[in-house]
């Protein structure tokens, strides 16, 4: 396959995430005489991609000078035992952020576990209190992937004010919060989902397009408005390796900016998690 000519339009998420992580490291050093931010991850079961994500979160924490605690439980763990584990982490003074790796194995209730987190330690921004704060537009931890999406849009100098933003996907983890963050920044937001009648037409309206549907290459370049900014959240494992939800090759000639997969949104998620954990550690000092 010929090399894709994407210089000038490709958003380098790896490089931007690296800069965010350097700022985190500097903040950790600056507050080290008062608090050492601590993140606990909870991994239940033996899903290989989840284990890889958790491992990279630990490495990133350590590089930033933060405390990193990994709790690994077998897939046979009962709901009660998992909740007891969350209670224990909620009570630990050296832990400021707790991340439960989702999805949990069958038989465990994701919602009940997330609701058990102390909202002050919800660095993933998924607790109903955090989601409510997002909806109300008041400060609080923003979900990491959506926060990373906004950071990428800011980095390329695109102001969402007055622009048409189309978000494909309406999950609690990605689509819904991304749309709310764009709305907060004064974009005119359209949500698309599996029942949307004419996805191509909706996509064609977008000045800013965020794709988070989890379908490899589902969004065709020909659908995209010329000059749009495209953020591809999708991570799909295919025979050709990891690919996004946007057909990158056909999109590149039309867009002003586009994130590649891998190397776009993915690295931002961990960077924003670290940043949220430092915020939580600082907030704990005044709690
Ligand atoms: P979900 O499966 O929870 O949600 C997918 C959404 O896409 C749903 O709202 C669904 O609609 C919609 N959808 C599905 N098919 C279509 C279609 N053909 N046309 C229009 N809309 C459709 O996925 P997530 O939100 O958790 O994740 C989305 C993608 O982002 C995945 O590829 C995931 O791997 C990736 N991801 C990447 C992260 C990163 O760090 N880069 C972090 C988290 C996720 P409906 O609601 O009607 O079912």
Please outline the helices and strands.
Blueprint: H1 13-30, E1 38-44, H2 48-63, E2 67-73, H3 79-91, E3 97-100, H4 110-116, H5 128-136, H6 144-155, E4 164-168, H7 175-184, E5 188-192, H8 199-203, E6 208-211, E7 229-232, E8 236-238, E9 241-243, H9 248-251, E10 257-258, H10 265-286
Parallel strand pairs: 1-2, 1-3, 4-5, 4-6, 6-7, 7-10
Antiparallel strand pairs: 8-9
Helix pairs in contact: 1-10, 2-10, 6-7, 6-10
This protein binds NADPH dihydro-nicotinamide-adenine-dinucleotide phosphate.
How is this structure best described in words?
The chain is α/β, with parallel strands linked by helices and 287 residues long. The chain has 2 domains: 35-120, Leucine Dehydrogenase, chain A, domain 1 (Rossmann fold, 3-Layer(aba) Sandwich), CATH 3.40.50; 144-266, Rossmann fold (3-Layer(aba) Sandwich). The protein is built from 10 helices and 10 strands. The chain has helices spanning 13-30, 48-63, 79-91, 110-116, 128-136, 144-155, 175-184, 199-203, 248-251, 265-286, and strands spanning 38-44, 67-73, 97-100, 164-168, 188-192, 208-211, 229-232, 236-238, 241-243, 257-258. The strands form 3 sheets. Strands 5-4-6-7-10 form a 5-stranded parallel beta sheet. Strands 2-1-3 form a 3-stranded parallel beta sheet, sandwiched between helices. Helix 2 packs across helix 10 (265-286) and helix 6 crosses helix 10 (265-286). The mean pLDDT is 97. NADPH dihydro-nicotinamide-adenine-dinucleotide phosphate (NDP) binds at residues 145, 168-171, 173-175, 192-196, 199, 212-215, 218, 233-236, 265-266, 269.
């Amino acid at each position: 396959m010929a090399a894709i000519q994407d210089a000038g339009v490709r958003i380098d998420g790896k490089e931007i995430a690296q800069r965010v992580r350097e700022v985190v490291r500097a903040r950790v050093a600056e507050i080290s005489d008062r608090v050492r931010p601590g993140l606990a991850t909870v991994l239940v079961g033996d899903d290989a991609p989840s284990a890889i994500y958790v491992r990279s979160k630990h490495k990133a924490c350590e590089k930033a000078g933060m405390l990193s605690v990994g709790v690994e439980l077998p897939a046979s763990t009962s709901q009660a035992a998992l909740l007891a584990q969350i209670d224990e982490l909620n009570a630990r003074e050296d832990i400021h952020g707790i991340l439960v790796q989702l999805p949990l194995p069958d038989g465990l209730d994701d919602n009940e576990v997330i609701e058990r987190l102390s909202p002050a330690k919800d660095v993933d921004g998924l607790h109903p209190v955090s989601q409510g704060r997002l909806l109300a537009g008041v400060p609080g931890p923003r979900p990491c992937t959506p926060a990373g999406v906004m950071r990428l849009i800011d980095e390329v100098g695109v102001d969402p004010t007055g622009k048409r933003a189309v978000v494909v996907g309406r999950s609690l983890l990605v689509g819904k919060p991304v749309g709310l963050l764009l709305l907060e920044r004064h974009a005119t937001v359209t949500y698309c989902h599996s029942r949307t009648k004419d996805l191509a037409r909706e996509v064609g309206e977008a000045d800013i397009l965020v794709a988070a549907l989890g379908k490899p290459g589902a969004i065709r370049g020909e659908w995209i408005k010329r000059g749009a900014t495209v953020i591809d959240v999708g991570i799909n494992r295919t025979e050709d390796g990891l690919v996004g939800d946007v057909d990158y090759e056909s999109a590149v000639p039309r867009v002003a900016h586009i994130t590649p997969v891998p190397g776009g949104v993915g690295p931002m998620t961990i960077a924003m998690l670290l940043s949220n954990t430092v915020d939580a550690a600082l907030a704990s000092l005044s709690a």
